[in-house]
Backbone:
């Protein structure tokens, strides 16, 4: 069977990190995000091809995926000439679909038993199955209401303060039979959430919901991007190199160069060829990407640095995300900000009046 990853969005909510890099390959620790989704699909066992539906910077995604050995899945790249929405992207892939298809939104990270979802779909004889996730604050989301037999009844826009009928949201994972995809108009912008799924309800299709209580996050904002790193380091989402390790583990790559007098507070992650100089402090929930250089006396905490960043001596970083190749000058104090690739923060003394 086949799967489709809807990976064509521009990632505008995650900018400036996605100004030069498409969201599907932003690093989570030291792995492109897309690989975590492929991990989940590989565990199904019956998925033999994954269709990547692309539009924004597709060559970057293709180049990276093609460079990785032993993915264990055949990858097909489909590049839409122009974006046609989430349903339009699926319609564009229709000629390659001849069996039940699993569909993933391109910004969802989930711990989900896809085999169980497929079995549920087949046992119910469904034409479409949507995975739902209960949330603590449903007023902030669009909701999906089901009846006692798990049939989808209606889609509710963000309800705000009105009385809520349910607390389940669309988790961005679907199982669909190709026979019903022809209802998506060809070469027409269409949304799977706002157009396709409501049409199934209106027409009485066999449309059911599988409720998952496992880990789920939409990584598409700087806040949630930081959160997923915390969740991996704390073991809430099982992923290497923190899987099965004690809470508070400090992970340092073998090729990293750590000088004397450096202190670590776990959990944190130090990637290959990182240099951390004397007297620096690396605090909890920090990620130092490949080839970062951290000067002497630097303090870094709850921050994520993409590869090849340079942090000058005595600088301080807190709650920061830095894109690739950023430069933080000596003595700079940077907090609660997300900076894009090659951003420069000058020495505060050089900007004084």
Residues:
């Amino acid at each position: 069977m086949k799967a489709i990853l809807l990976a064509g969005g521009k990632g505008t909510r995650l900018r400036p990190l996605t100004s030069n890099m498409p969201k599907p390959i932003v690093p989570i620790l030291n792995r492109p995000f897309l690989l975590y989704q492929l991990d989940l699909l590989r565990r199904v066992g019956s998925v033999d091809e994954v269709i990547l539906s692309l539009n924004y910077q597709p060559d970057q995604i293709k180049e990276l995926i093609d460079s990785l050995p032993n993915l264990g899945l055949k990858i097909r790249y489909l590049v839409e000439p122009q974006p046609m929405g989430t349903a339009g992207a699926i319609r564009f892939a229709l000629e390659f679909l001849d069996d039940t298809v699993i569909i993933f939104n391109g910004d969802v990270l989930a711990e989900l038993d896809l085999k169980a979802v497929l079995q549920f779909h087949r046992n119910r004889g469904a034409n479409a199955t949507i995975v739902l996730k209960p949330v603590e604050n449903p007023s902030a989301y669009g909701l999906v209401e089901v009846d006692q037999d798990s049939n989808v009844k209606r889609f509710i826009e963000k309800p705000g303060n009105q009385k809520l009928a349910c607390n389940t949201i669309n988790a961005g994972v679907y199982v669909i039979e190709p026979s019903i995809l022809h209802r998506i108009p060809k070469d027409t912008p269409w949304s799977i959430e706002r157009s396709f799924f409501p049409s199934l309800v209106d027409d009485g299709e066999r449309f059911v919901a599988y409720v998952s209580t496992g880990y789920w996050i939409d990584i598409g904002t700087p806040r949630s991007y930081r959160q997923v790193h915390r969740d991996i380091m704390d073991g809430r989402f099982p992923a290497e190199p923190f899987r099965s390790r004690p809470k508070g583990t400090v992970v340092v790559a073998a090729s990293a160069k750590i000088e004397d007098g450096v202190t670590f507070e776990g959990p944190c992650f130090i990637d290959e060829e990182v240099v951390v100089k004397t007297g620096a402090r690396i605090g909890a929930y920090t990620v130092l990407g490949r080839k970062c250089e951290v000067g002497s006396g630097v303090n870094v905490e709850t921050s994520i640095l993409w590869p090849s960043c340079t942090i000058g001596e005595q600088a301080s970083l807190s709650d920061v995300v830095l894109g690739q190749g950023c430069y933080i000058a000596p003595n700079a104090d940077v907090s609660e900000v997300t900076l894009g690739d090659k951003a420069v923060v000058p020495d505060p003394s050089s900007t004084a009046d």
